[in-house]
Amino acid sequence: MQGGARSRTRTEGMNAGGKVPAGTGRTEAAPGKKARSLAALGYTKPRTYEELRAVLSSGTVHFPKRLRQVAIFLWQHPGDVALSTIVQVAEQAGVQPSTLVRFAKIFGYAGFSDLQELFKDHVKGSLPEGAAREGPGNDAAETGEHGHFLTGMVGASRASLARLDGDFDFGGFDTMVEQLAAAELIYVVGSKRAFPVATYISLTLSQQGVRNVLVDNVGSNAFDQVACIGKRDAVLAISFSPYNSITPDLVAVASQRQARIVTITDSTFSPLVELSDTWLEVVESDFAGFRSLAASLAVGMALVHGVAVRRSE
Amino acid sequence: MQGGARSRTRTEGMNAGGKVPAGTGRTEAAPGKKARSLAALGYTKPRTYEELRAVLSSGTVHFPKRLRQVAIFLWQHPGDVALSTIVQVAEQAGVQPSTLVRFAKIFGYAGFSDLQELFKDHVKGSLPEGAAREGPGNDAAETGEHGHFLTGMVGASRASLARLDGDFDFGGFDTMVEQLAAAELIYVVGSKRAFPVATYISLTLSQQGVRNVLVDNVGSNAFDQVACIGKRDAVLAISFSPYNSITPDLVAVASQRQARIVTITDSTFSPLVELSDTWLEVVESDFAGFRSLAASLAVGMALVHGVAVRRSE
DNA sequence: GCGCATTTCGAACATTATTTCCAATTTTCA
DNA sequence: TGAAAATTGGAAATAATGTTCGAAATGCGC
């Protein structure tokens, strides 16, 4: 995930040897000369949390008392390690902060912070919203870089879709289908990023024989269109942050005219929420600022299908 | 949460997640008199993550632009907030660190760190702890009939994306980027199912500062638009089977006028293939006749990104 | 029990993160 | 449209966190 930008700030200029005042003439290049490092024992610094766990549990390394204490604590409380400061971890593990640093160095890390990154990444990954992202820093173009970006975009799409597995408001979804199916005419509204979703929904609705109006604001007549809406009609609005499009204004008009309002949006802060009879939260991940629409489209299709089925009953 | 909303007849059945009991306790004396704090507005500093979420979603607080941005980010990425530093959070949310501090203070916290504690506690609490078992198989059967369709649609999207991992023509992709980047003006063409893809590509191109024309056939002037195309321009055409739209006809005109033609389509049988300088095959899966657009959009975004990068060199 | 090697401790130090403050900007209201 | 208020960006100041290093303690073999 944000590996690039993040670990850069962390690790650079951090090398332990670099602080020695010039003039001592110490050879600092040689790693693990004095301190017993695992590299000397044929190990390599674990790059992921799982690797670290494997090494810890392998039992091949025999630690002295305090360091063993540390190993056990890391094993049993990864969450605390990820979320606390070195002092807090030391306290809970019953050791000194410096012991933690030593422990990290034995494994070849620059320090505790370096080791902690592993835990943070792990926790982030096992969290529902683990998304694909990238810092703005690395825009250097390489032939393979385009492919890399495609991979990132696919990752963002996958993350968006995964979020639908977790907590999706199926109750709200069903209500929404009801209300849309009951409507005389469905107005589909969505601008900017939401416009592709709106067009696809409108198209598939039509293909299913469900009459609908795509409010596309061609000729700037969107407001006039919406001003014709009736009480028995419904608006399906799609809107994402930042909420600076005309969609909220259009929906406000429809709301005044007492049409049913159902909304797909990405947070409770959407101005559409308070105008809506029903709304669904669909959060899309982005990669380098390019947002996926995969989840919104999937939900949109599901709505269309639901309405079509309901109408045919 | 939305309990505070005026007694409109339309407040039932809202709320996506069905989360958050709002249990704000007693009113604590307001410490700050200078900054506009919520305490002054009759609120008290939320003591748990759930309380904070409740306040955020209540909609009773109206934030200015940047602060709203913060609220949305906190809402959508609690994990990142818990695990990152203030600078990292600020970067990802697109605001200044100081804005985060200000935000925290409005709610009565001492600073960002204070607020962050809430997020840390929350994450800690929702962690299995001790275990690292990754269980992706959340097959809750409560999804009902409509939910089943959503699952199918998500599956189709995933399948489409997975196809990009396998055999994707990166060479053709790079050529395509070159040709689009070299063009004076890019015409984006796509009808029916391909139209959402075309609109999103056009939008993001514009956002990247790449001038382009979306040939949407409003006013039936698509042919006249294309008839103006020059030798140094390029057409980005998107077309899927059945190939019965006007896209091939439009592209044929552009081809005669010797513009570069690059195409995203779903088989070698597409009439666009023989008209194109370069083309990419992107196959979308469908579920119950509803086709995903996930892969096409991902490829489209990658193209836009590639062109933007190439142009900025 | 003695001396050597290893481990641990804890305070001094270096680095990084957070907060504060003020000027610049935008918005609001008359 | 202009003045006042509110909001925001940015850098300096402050606080916190992490790291280093020498001295003390511990364990171990002889």
H/E element order of chain A: HHHHHHHHHEHEHEHEEEEH
Strand order, sheet with most strands of chain A? 2-1-3-4-5
- Helix percent band of chain A: 40-55%
Q: How many DSSP H or I helices of chain A?
A: 13
The total of beta strands of chain A comes to 7
The largest sheet of chain A, given as strand count, sense and whether it forms a barrel, is: 5 strands, parallel
- State the secondary-structure class of chain A: alpha/beta
Distance between the termini of chain A: 46 Å
Catalogue the unreliable spans of chain A.
1-42, 130-143
What radius of gyration of chain A results from the CA coordinates? Answer: 27 Å
Shape type of chain A: elongated
The greatest interface here is: A-B, 91 and 84 residues
Mean pLDDT of chain A: 79
Strand content of chain A: 5-15%
Oligomer: homodimer
Task: Please explain how this structure is put together.
The structure is a homodimer of 313-residue chains. In chain A, strand 6 (286-287) and strand 7 form a beta hairpin. Chain A has helices at 3-11, 49-58, 65-76, 78-83, 86-93, 97-106, 112-125, 143-165, 170-182, 194-207, 222-226, 247-256, 294-311, and strands at 186-190, 212-215, 234-239, 260-265, 278-281, 286-287, 290-291. In chain A, helix 9 (170-182) packs across helix 13 (294-311) and helix 10 packs parallel to helix 13 (294-311). In chain A, the strands form two sheets. In chain A, strands 2-1-3-4-5 form a five-stranded parallel β-sheet, with helices on both faces. In chain A, strands 6-7 form a two-stranded antiparallel ribbon. Chain A is 49% helix and 9% strand. The first copy, chain A, has 13 helices and seven strands. The first copy, chain A, is of the alpha/beta class and 313 residues long. The structure holds a DNA duplex (30 and 30 nucleotides).
